[in-house]
Amino acid sequence: MLIDPSNATLLVVDIQDKLIGAMSDPAGTAARARWLLAASAELQLPIVISEQYPKGLGHTLDALKAAAPAAQIVEKVHFSCVAGDCLPDSLLARDQVIVCGMETHVCVLQTVFGLLAQGKQVFVVEDACDSRTPASKSAALARMGAAGAQIVTREMVVFELMGSASHPLFRHISKTYLVGEQP
């Protein structure tokens, strides 16, 4: 199945100030998530950002909030956004959820399993996810894929959101996000 821009939402899970430094690739993860957020915002995809216990773990990275200023930010204490009952109706009304964030094997995985249990079509953006260890990330991606989530990349998401080279933003997106060295 392909991503349908009229029926999808981007969910960014817990890319927060005090947590990012513990990841296996903090700078790369932040840069790739910012890329995905900015491109998705330009393509007018609805965006939700979750924060796990922000009093202790800080808030979403400023660069990510700046990339998608219209994104809705929700707080949770459960590892799963679904179990935490923090997802807005606007996200739940759509059948497809594109998910990225951290940690892949904890909050991302538990959120994805909750979304799958609700009958959602879930797309996990592997190059915009991270864990403290690559092995944990890899195991989580394999487990989510085996459970029915689609494992995708940022470029897959952007090309599926546009659908064709006739999309009005194709030239801009191509020049801005797909040319030259990317994070």
From TrEMBL:
UniProt xrefs under InterPro entries: Isochorismatase-like_dom, Isochorismatase-like_sf, Isochorismatase_domain
Extent of the signal sequence: none
Location of the Isochorismatase-like domain: 9-155
UniProt cross-references to Gene3D superfamilies, sorted A to Z: Isochorismatase-like
Coiled-coil parts of chain: none
Protein's UniProt name: Isochorismatase family protein
Species the sequence originates in: Pseudomonas farsensis
Lineage, highest ranks first: Bacteria, Pseudomonadati, Pseudomonadota, Gammaproteobacteria, Pseudomonadales
